[in-house]
Amino acid sequence: MASATAGSDAAPTQSDRDDVARRLLHSSEALSYDPAQEVDWETPLDTSYHGASPEWSTLYGTSYWAEMTPEQQRELTRQEAASVASTGIWFEMILQQMMLRDFYAKDPTEPAFQWALTEIADECRHSIMFARGAAKLRAPAYRPRRLVIELGRVFKTLAFGEAAYAAILVAEEVLDVMQRDWMRDERVVPFVRTINNIHVVEESRHMKFAREETRTRLAGSSRLRRQINALVIAIVSYVIVTSMVHKKVYANAGLDPERATREAKGNEHHKSLLRSSCSGLMEFLGSAGLLTKTSMWFYKRANLL
Ligand SMILES: [Fe+2]
Ligand SMILES: [Fe+2]
């Protein structure tokens, strides 16, 4: 289930913004986790479990999947889950830097300022948690392709306003829809379910903030600015979604990488799962005026629309 809500089109006022940030701060005080304590890091990996819900595997539903042994299927979903976590770390580093830049020298007495630092602290814990989780799944470092790393470097240095916050929202929503399924799934290894549960709880506050900021920053922006940023956000979304599962997961799961990559590319089941899971997110982007003709081309290519 997607958690984005379209909400009202009216731009939030300063006092709305303060209220939201204050509520988020209270909520974070009431319910936050320390993964070092909460996650079972001690128990050795039990390979009778999946790393993710099999239905979310990039090969689920293909003829290759049907030929795989249950052991291979589980190894594949474990490598895929580790890859998603690694991509999560990459994007969390981008978003921490964007938020730090955004709040540089702003008024520290404002709730939004304090919330931003709280969110950055959450992300810092998350990235350490994902790193430990991927290592426990016996996965190597899955980093994005060279070009994507360099594009990310430019984006995190230059992006501001609605482009930064809508990109944050997309990355968080896409991760969220998967993790909501995995955290409830008894076929998934328990420590991964705990990681997903922690992430889903803490990210729901981040997504609320990202939606508010996107609407605030868009208010009163010119048509041209909206058109440009809609396109930038769509390209970033395309890059994030297509970087989620690294090609090397197939070889690491003992599969033929060429056949696996080919069948994953044509996997209609996976495409329609992504589309249906992200319908709430697309509704939000539409209500914010960010689904322009050119941006929709990228969302369709990323199987988000
Ligand atoms: Fe996070
Ligand atoms: Fe987040």
TrEMBL record:
Domain of life according to the entry: Bacteria
Protein name, entry field: p-aminobenzoate N-oxygenase AurF
Annotated GO MF terms: oxidoreductase activity
Cross-referenced Pfam families: AurF
InterPro entries: AurF/CmlI, Ferritin-like_SF, RNR-like
